[in-house]
Amino acid sequence: MELPDLRGREAILKVHAKKIKTADDVDFHTVARMAAGASGAELANIINEAALRAVRGGRTVVTEADLEESIEVVIAGYQKKNAVLSDQEKRVVAYHEIGHALVAAMQSHSAPVQKITIIPRTSGARGYTMQVETGDKYLMTREELENKIATYTGGRAAEEVAFGQITTGASNDIGQATKLARAMIARYGMSEDFDMVAMETVQNQYLGGDASLTCSPATQQEIDRKVVELVKAQHAKARKILTDNRDKLDELAGFLYEKETITGEEFMEILTGGEQR
Length: 277
Known about the structure:
This protein is mostly helical.
């Protein structure tokens, strides 16, 4: 079965929410947008986690904050309360996450930033940046995909710009950027040299979507070269964005370092020069 779309996610959430009490501030449409890509089982788990969070807080009513936190639990795991980052690690993670958010915000057609945090999670994530589309997207242009790759590289780029060195924190970003770049070239026909020739096929798309190349070894080498070129170009673009906006990078990273978690509204207020503190 295909994953539910925005309307389907909202309907599923409302069905499962009938068994709990929800506060007046709960907007299931917003929650459904934040849960993009979630399966029916994961949506049910989001409701259950929200109810548990309310109980742990001594409340009988589930709030919007409970639901938003439960989405993060499903996505990235529980907060690791006993995880202690060194001061330098915390500062690096703050720059890394702001790097993602700032690159996204300075490009057109990027999903708005919803939340940024540097609180470690049980999934192993030291922090993450949540972007939320205003609706479901079924088609993406080459520019949008390139911007997405640039956003993936934004964390590493921020480390380079701010500290002149790199860490292991970008391992997941590297995988995501490489996977997307390869799909653009080998599956989506977004390479001028290969035009509309499929070089990759996807099997069992509803069971993980394993991809395999269907071309000669020489062509595979050419695909590899083009993947590297594409990711390097977007990485360079991300570095330039952050270098050109170094003052905002420093200000936002310092603010996130102090607060550990900030909202998209707080991020945009600082970015656009609004009074935040």
